[in-house]
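Let us begin with a simple case.
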Amino acid sequence: MSSTVKYWVFLVLFLTLGFIYSVCNQSTIDKNQLLHCQVVHLNDGFGYQIMRGKKIVILQEYIPGFPGKQNFVSEEQALKTANLVISKLENGESPILLPSDLEKLHISSKVSH
């Protein structure tokens, strides 16, 4: 076998192995890299934390975008909001919530404004 043929065989074999490795490596999801949330019980209501594995990435004790320091009035509101933030992060978007985002989730506070 000539050296040119050996070179091409080696190159094709190397590229094939590299492709197989990258495909297999992508399908293995490290659970420590997944984002998840937990509701946080506070004195006057609820908040949430977003975690990657055991590390807290975001701790949100107050309703974002509301004036003052207002807690969520229910676990459900905190959880819905946390899930929206996770969805934004997973889609490569900014985790900042707009008033329209909170309206769509029907987020309210104890204090009328």
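The second case is a distinct protein. As before, the sequence precedes its structure tokens.
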Amino acid sequence: MNRTDEQEVSGEPSVAELLTTASMLCKRGDYSKAYEIYYKLAQSGHAESQVFLGWMYSQGKGIRASQEEAEHWYTRAAKLRSASGAFYLGGLLARQGRFNDAITWYKKSANAGYSPSQFRLGVAYLEGRGVPQDLEMAVHYLEAAKRNGNVFAWRQLAVLDIKGRRGMMRRIIGSIDFLTMFSYGVVAALWNHNSDDLKG
């Protein structure tokens, strides 16, 4: 008998039911009750619940804010190969000025195809934060993120083109891309404002 069968026999809610309940609690602003559910799931090794706990600690939602606890939970999720866990861990480390460490986690997440991390790596290479400044590498990661639907990467590439950073011939293409990206972004935001396509 597997865990799901045991839950059905015992009357315990399934993981999917618990996640739905926790999500509804968050939408109502009842973060402390949602925290209890996510904590239980996170303790059992559910990576995305670990990511959500990290976010709750980072933002002080339902629990006292603690960047150390946020890092702990993001790290646990990232070590379970959660691309979003690695992304959020990278973001936390970057905000603390630990750019080299952030890059390590962004790369792991980007290699899994997670477009927000691909975008962040592209920007890191553009700005030279945690990596040497390198336009070719920046474009590589931004193009990957754009192919995966990331609006911010699309915008960044359009701006590079408008400024002529990838050649003067691309200036017109950049303007068209910018307008197209803007339209796509509006539709994506209206359709699902929590989409990974809108994370930057």
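The two ends are 43 Å apart (CA to CA). The chain has eleven helices and no strands.
Keep these points in mind for the review questions at the end of the chapter.
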